[in-house]
Amino acid sequence: MPECNRVTPYGDIIIAPDERGRFMGNRGCLHEGHDIVRPWNGKRWITCVLEFRGRRAPRWEPRRYTALFFHDEAVAFAAGHRPCAECRHADYQRYRDAWDAAFGVRLGADDMDEQLHHDRLDGRKKRLYSEPWDDVPEGAFVDLDGAPALVIGEQLRAWSPGVGYGEAIACPTAGTATVITPAANVAVLRAGYVLDVSPAASGT
Length: 204
Fold this sequence. Notes:
Elements: E1 4-7, E2 13-15, E3 23-26, E4 31-32, E5 35-36, E6 46-48, E7 68-70, H1 73-79, E8 82-83, H2 89-103, H3 109-120, E9 121-122, E10 125-126, E11 129-132, E12 141-144, E13 147-152, E14 155-160, E15 164-170, E16 176-179, H4 183-190
Parallel strand pairs: 6-8
Antiparallel strand pairs: 1-2, 3-6, 3-7, 4-5, 9-10, 11-16, 12-13, 12-16, 13-14, 14-15
Helix pairs in contact: 2-4
């Protein structure tokens, strides 16, 4: 039976009848029993590999972190997560390098998490913001009439739970986009961080 542990690009935790996805995530302990009772617990939102050194993710264990699952890293980035410094150490260092290139300062995890927490939330809601279409990098998610879509090359791929990426449509070349991916993660993408995106996003 599907559990309430899949994450959308908006950061919502939902029940979705799909596979675990390409990545696992962690925002602290969010559950009581099998019920999600809070959307986050702390500012450290990370993206982890599904398996690491034989460790097993906790399964709704009391006072342990809640294992969340993402379709791919683009979805995790849009939700406001960054690579784990332990199980994805090389990716974490690439992320820090891109952060340094984007902002001119090499920060540790706590300072990056503080900025990400500000950028991903407006109060307790997801923070959305406007950017010219030409400034939205590949790998970022945008909102199209209330639904998320991934910018991939010169195309957009709508995303939906349990389905993943849909048919490609042309990306607008003028006007402004409503961006879902937090501003700090967008800056990291502009600085050259390469995401692990589902092959379906490219139609392969």
